[in-house]
Design goal:
Radius of gyration: 18 Å
Largest sheet: 3 strands, antiparallel
Number of helices: 4
Order of helices and strands: EEHEHHEEH
Shape: elongated
CATH architecture: Orthogonal Bundle
Number of strands: 5
Helix content: 40-55%
CATH class: Mainly Alpha
Strand content: 15-25%
Number of domains: 1
Length: about 130
Amino acid sequence: MRIRRWPLLCIEWYCVRVDRSQLLKGLLDIIVLRVLETGDAYGYEILRRLRGSGFDELGDASVYGTLRRLYRSGHLSTYVQPSESGPNRKYYALTETGRKHLSGMREAWEDVSAKMQALFDSPKGQP
């Protein structure tokens, strides 16, 4: 059983628990596409790469659901390879459409990230 510890976000007197999983759900597409940009991988290997990058809290079902959705939308292709240690493995690969989608998402992320950083760097969120 995993115990989640959410940090507190406090603005003056008002504090809320920050649920990182909600933030990560919105970023799951770009995270998975970026992991596959480095090379084709099967499901468990993708999970290992994600966890190796610090995304321990991403649930297996969320990642596999994202892989299916990205495949259906044409951003990923699949192929099967025999495994030396068990059943065949289904590999996921980035398509050209997926590469273009990742590029657009990266530009959007960099834009939003820069704006958020400017907000956090300014006194009390003032522009």
